[in-house]
Structure formats: C-alpha cells, structure tokens
Design goal:
This protein has 262 residues and is an alpha+beta fold. The chain is 47% helix and 18% strand. β1 and β2 form a beta hairpin. The N and C termini lie far apart (69 Å).
Length: 262
C-alpha cells in the first residue's frame, strides 16, 4: 500500500492512499474522502508536485479529474510505479516541466559581469598566474548565465525571442562577441565554456527559425568601447581567414559581415 501524508485536495490537507484496487485521498479529520478504482484511470500527469488523474466514470458519464497537490519531488517515482504496475493497460504518469522564461533584466546584469571578467582575462599577461586566475573567475560567472540559458532554451520560444530579438538582437550579439573573441588559455576546452558557446548558437538558431534574427553591431560610443574592440578583433580574424573563435557556430560570422554592411 502506498501512503503519502500532507497531500492537498481542494486546499485541504490529508493523506494519499493507494493499493492494487483503489486510490484516493482522505482529509486529516476523516470527514472527507475521494476514492477511485484504479481500473478507471485513463491518464495521469504531474507538474511540480501537482498530480492530475483522469478517471473514466461508471456508466459512461463524464470523466472526472482527481486533483491532488503538495507532493514532494521524492514522491514522483513511487507515484509513477504505482500507476504503471496497477493499471491495465499500464498508465505512465507524464511529468511536465514548468515553462521557464529568461528575465531580460537578470540576463543584462549577468552579461555585464561576463563582459567585465572577459576584459580582465584579455588584459592579463599571457601565460601568467593572473591570467589563469582571471579565467577561473570568468568560468564561475559563466555557470550562472549558462544555466539560465539552458532552462530558457527548453521553454517558450516566443518568450525567448522577445528577450533576445529586442534592440536588433543586442543581447545575443553581445554574448556572441565575447565567446568569439575572449583569449582563453587554460579553460578553452572547459565544459562550461563549450556549453555556453553551444547555447549561444542555439539561441541564434531559434531566432532564425522564428525570423527574428538580426546581426548586431555595437555602437561606436564610450559605453560600448569594449564590445567595439571585440568587433574589430573578430572582423580582423575573418579577413585573415582565422575564425577560430566561432568554429562551433558555422554562422557566427554573420553578425560581423552583416554589421559591417549596415
């Protein structure tokens, strides 16, 4: 028998109980119960501790949805096994992920940190202890922006586009300039760095798919002086036939060429 306490039904606390024949919920004081035969289950879905079970009504009436909340993440496997083992045919609980939207403000703050650390890496003497330490600092900063992008990529594409297509695709343009031009020595093959570069390419692919991608070029003003320098570095590499910085993104040179023409 499966028993899980502190489960909510209609906002009231109680206990989830299930055996080979029936499953249901009973309030803490025992005054209210919800019970369904396991044979009636047709579908079950899970989202962040909320369980929804579609049950076929007896006599051909309208199906009923059992709504239970308050489960912990540790309960999912037990719930999944229960419906898989006791339903005929087996019912597999579908686990949904909450839609994750990237925050424009949070990304801007994180990106400024990455840009600052990248500048410090480039200013350090090649081969020195300071260079390695600054690269390590950059990798720590990369972790946060990488994880945020990773979650956003798996969410709503339109929401992703609204953030990254804004202002002529400035946000992804800034990120692309940094990943293409920062001079790494020790951490060039670090999984965090490679993952971030791949995510930048994925964001660009989504924008192209939606028709919202535009090559971005930093304005020539004091506020963008560091990025303007990176733009020059990338264009120089392209003229010399050395696109090493963007080798993981075959179309990453589009921003430089397109920007030069505009």
């Amino acid at each position: 028998m499966l028993r899980i306490d502190k489960v909510l039904e209609g906002g009231e606390a109680g206990t989830f109980r299930a055996n080979a024949e029936v499953f249901g919920w009973r309030s803490v004081d025992g005054g209210r119960t919800v019970v369904q035969p396991v044979a009636s289950v047709r579908r079950a879905e899970w989202l962040e501790g909320a369980l929804r079970v579609l049950c076929e009504a007896e006599g051909g009436g309208d199906p009923e949805v059992i709504k239970l909340d308050g489960f912990g993440p540790q309960h999912f496997d037990d719930i999944w096994r229960y419906f898989e083992q006791n339903c005929t045919p087996p019912v597999y609980v579908r686990k949904h992920k909450a839609a994750t939207h990237v925050s424009a403000a949070d990304f801007d703050v994180a990106m400024r940190g990455v840009e600052g650390d990248a500048d410090r890496v480039d200013e350090a003497t090649a081969g020195g202890v300071s260079k390695k330490a600054r690269e390590a600092d950059l990798m720590k900063r990369v972790e946060g922006i990488r994880d945020g992008l990773d979650r956003a990529i798996s969410g709503d594409k339109q929401a992703l586009s609204r953030v990254f297509a804004e202002n002529g695709c400035e946000r992804i343009g800034r990120l692309r300039l940094v990943v293409d031009t920062v001079q790494l020595e020790v951490y060039q093959k670090d999984p965090r760095w490679l993952h971030l570069r791949n995510l930048a390419s994925s964001v660009e692919s989504v924008l192209r798919e939606l028709g919202t991608y535009r090559p971005w070029r930093p304005p020539e003003d004091d506020a963008h002086s560091s990025l303007a320098r990176r733009q020059m570095v990338r264009e120089l590499r392209l003229r010399q036939g050395d696109d090493d910085g963007g080798r993981d993104s075959p179309r990453s040179d589009g921003g430089a060429r397109g920007g030069a023409g505009g």
